[in-house]
Prior knowledge:
The complex is a heterotrimer of chains A (478), B (121) and C (417).
Chain A: E1 2-8, H1 12-21, E2 28-31, E3 48-49, H2 60-79, E4 83-84, E5 88-92, H3 95-111, E6 117-120, H4 121-127, E7 137-141, E8 145-147, H5 149-162, E9 166-168, E10 175-178, E11 184-187, E12 192-200, H6 206-212, E13 220-230, E14 241-244, E15 254-257, E16 263-266, E17 270-272, H7 282-292, E18 304-315, E19 321-324, E20 331-335, H8 341-360, H9 384-393, E21 400-402, E22 407-408, H10 409-417, H11 425-432, H12 445-456
Parallel strand pairs in A: 1-2, 1-12, 2-9, 5-14, 12-20
Antiparallel strand pairs in A: 3-8, 4-8, 5-7, 6-7, 10-11, 11-12, 13-16, 13-17, 13-18, 15-16, 19-20, 21-22
Helix pairs in contact in A: 1-5, 1-8, 2-8, 10-11, 10-12
Chain B: E1 2-6, E2 15-20, E3 26-30, H1 35-46, E4 49-50, E5 53-59, E6 65-70, E7 74-75, H2 79-87, E8 90-92, E9 100-102, E10 112-114
Parallel strand pairs in B: 5-8
Antiparallel strand pairs in B: 1-2, 2-3, 4-7, 5-6, 6-10, 9-10
Chain C: E1 2-9, H1 13-24, E2 30-33, E3 49-51, E4 60-61, H2 62-74, E5 79-81, E6 85-89, E7 94-99, E8 103-114, E9 118-120, H3 123-126, E10 136-138, H4 139-149, E11 156-160, H5 164-175, E12 179-184, H6 194-201, E13 208-209, E14 212-218, E15 225-230, E16 243-246, E17 249-252, E18 256-258, H7 261-266, E19 290-292, H8 303-321, E20 330-336, E21 339-343, E22 346-348, E23 355-361, E24 365-374, E25 377-387, E26 393-397, H9 399-402, E27 410-416
Parallel strand pairs in C: 1-2, 1-8, 2-5, 8-19, 10-17, 11-12, 11-17, 12-13, 20-27
Antiparallel strand pairs in C: 3-4, 6-7, 7-8, 9-18, 14-15, 15-16, 20-22, 21-23, 23-26, 24-25, 24-27
Helix pairs in contact in C: 1-2, 1-8, 4-5, 5-6
Amino acid sequence: MVYDVAVIGAGVVGSLIARELGRYNIKAVLLEKCGDVAMGTTKANSAIAHAGFDAKPGSLKAKMNLEGIKMMEYVCGELSVPYKDIGSLVVAFNEEEMGTLTELLERGRKNGVPGLEIVGQDRLREMEPNINLNAVGALYAPTAAIIGPYELAIAAVENAVTNGVEFIRNFEVKAVETQEDGTTVIRSADNVIQAKFVINSAGVFADDIAAMTGDGGYKIVSRKGEYFLLDQSVGGLVKHVVFQCPSKMGKGVLISPTVHGNILIGPNAVDIEDKEDCCTTAEGAVEILEKARRSIANLSTRDMITSFGGLRAHSVTEDFIIERSESNPNIIHLIGIESPGLTAAPAIAVYVRDMLLSFAGKFEENTAFDPIRPKPLRFHELSDEERRKAIERNKAYGRVICRCEGITEGEILDAIHAPAGARDVDAVKRRTRAGMGRCQGGFCGSKVVEILARELGVELNEVTKFGGDSKILFEKTK
Amino acid sequence: MNRELTCIACPVGCPLVIELDENNKVVSVTGNQCKRGINYAETECTSPTRSLTTTAKVEGGIYPLVPMKSANPVPKGKMLECMKVINAVVMKAPVKIGDIVVKDILGTGVDIVATNICPEA
Amino acid sequence: MLNYDLVVVGGGPAGMAAALKARECGVKSIVVLERAETLGGILEQCIHTGFGLHYFKEELSGPEYAAKFIELLEETDIEVKTDTMVVEITKENVVKAVNNIDGFVNYKAKAIVLAMGCRERPRGALNIAGSRAAGIMTAGTAQKYVNLDGYMPGKKIVILGSGDIGLIMARRMVLEGAEVKMVCELMPYSSGLTRNILQCLDDFGIPLKLNCTVIDIHGKNRVEGVTIAKVDRNRRPIKGTEEYVECDTLMLSVGLIPENELSRAMGVDLDPITGGPVVKENRETTQKGVFACGNVLHVHDLVDFVTLESQTAGEGAAKYILGLEEEENTVATKGIDGVRYVVPQMINTNCGSDVKLYFRVGQVYNNAKVFVESNEKVILSRRKPKLTPGEMEDVVIKKEVLETLPVGSELVIRVEV
């Protein structure tokens, strides 16, 4: 079978592209190297939908950012993805930085960002009571928002699959061969597919994939950023996304609420060779904490519940590259989708879809396309009466598995059995939040392993942490 | 000759000073807060023993394993060998506390007994 | 809405002892709500011995100790709901619980005993740098996999933290065929019982490295090794002392934290040092009719003392329910000069009985004296050959002495070398 379109990479961009393809009666497939959706940059970033004053006017980043932020609320609504438009503040700590804020304001206005204003010390303190006393003012962008980034990718793929797109996980692309008829054969170690058109949205690996297609001229620098997450009990530390004004010293770090009520701090930026190295470092921790204390003086590591690292695909050209391949014009490459990549994702998906339609010919519309992905049940958000009814409907909602976040077995089962569902412990965690609370999976971890083993029909020691060789248990004791 | 040991008969852990004669026999024990310390000193200096706790496989029960302990301490040097014997045992549910899993393990005179129940599935 | 005299949250040794004592004191309707499938709490996976030496004068394993109370419970008509999670407790003493048979149930209680136990400090809270590979787990989680599920969670192990759980698991893993390369301990002393250092580490030739910690974890999918380093007096890694240790598992035994999510949400005052509720000598928290005992109140070393404390709480709850409380004259307790915390934090001097004060010190003291003072006057002193943070201590204040203490005063415990 020859697919009409194959999308390589189930990050937030690839996932949303796949969803767009579900709007047509075509054979589309989404290929993912890892055991789950959102395993790259998508699961380790700032989770911010940027207002758009940061991007260079006239750039593709600026265009996609502005279009993306406009789409974000309703796309998150259709897919039941957490979204909160809390606005952002770029904080200045001296007069020189106040000057920079004016530049950002002008840049933002050029890009078409609505509602931008510079606020003085008093207003800033009203908006952020905990801000450091020597903050002098800020650039306020009311349209900035926080979202659930991997939730968006997961929901997009669920919706894509529901609408007829195929999802193949554990497909690591090893070779790409253009055929005489212009179609492309894509090989993994143990699988092969053939498609008329290919979308390369492979994140930090997109230049490697492009090289396989014969386009060796792209260069992606893998840039690691580390983050801390603070306990929900200090979730009120800041009310907006709090950036630091870029200065001679560099970009600064942000302090932001997350959609789940935690506080996120970070990132730093270190270029690294190994495109799979998301390890946190002791130096990174020191750097981030020091920088963050410029905004909130009494940040304490005591409230930290975890930290993580994520890679960004930085293109040496500094802008997004979204273009047809020179070697095979039936392939579209997406190179360097770093910040504001998350914000831009819904707009990029439409942009790529339209680019594809412009040369692929007419695709018949899928009249049964349903853009709505039903909201997964979240037991801890329900009222007492709703909880009662949920348990009556399905007993499994009556067994609380994750004590810290209040997640029930029913929700874990939903996550496993959803389209493109969870197959490992971290996948369950991303879909349900089981393991993201204070005890970090200490109580529920082994229970999630038991449930996965039962539902997938495998032995306990075949369940992995995040697919591949991430085995949790060895052999039986007896 | 004196030997210093910490008694492990109970969680207190009294520091013991044991006087031994030329034949390595215990002459006196000081530092203990109870009789068990004296017993411990004597066995530790002649043939040390240890309490062994582990699990054994169960067939037909609601749990895959049942925990057990040595009813009395076993020779310290034989612990790993005892583990091999216990790991080869398969109990049949139901199991009661006190059920003998291995009688007279390795000829030591010590029984290995179940320390929890395992009802039938 | 179901009405009960007493609702006990947690069916481990604390909850069971409290429920039984309350029944003994005449409380009629009692229900114990337990989240696991059986009663017994953490004891069910603590298959080693060392339990019951004080309370039963017998050396028992965890499950055997629990079984004695489970049997006693079965002889009463105290209701037990297992596989049941309490999700909320309101200020009006309504306990909201969930299970897959009864669904979502509101239990209106005259009195409540909080006995939720504690949880383990995870890697994330320590911010150990490095990989997120599989193979990083707390000792309690490893214990559950080995003792209840029957799987080896690792074959080549480095343990961080020399608390009892880590020591017990070191021995357990060796007995089941794993290699335990070392136990690293941040402090210059172990917080575990000396007995456990001997029978879990020395017996098996496992080195205990003091003043040592793990600073990096390596491995893409599964742990492949850790980097350890010595630490200085400020517990900071010393450059140049880094050492790579090959292993497939990092097991963490770095502290227990009382599990007070429910307590925090319902607004009872928590002691920042113990992590548990502030209580009076009868174990009543700052919410009327709500009592706390066991590890949820403060982390114990011996379950025997959990039982005794929980009986105090059960009795306190009973008196409250039956309207038999004494008139209150409160004094506060406080630990200074080396004493990190004191439980209970408040005493009703009219309580009519001796009061045992539990406390822990912040460092090791040899040949020290413990003083209990009121208004700077020494009312009690005890010689202690050794005091260590890993072993909870107690002093008993006699009823007659309590009655002389001025209302609103402070009872101070301190240590002098």
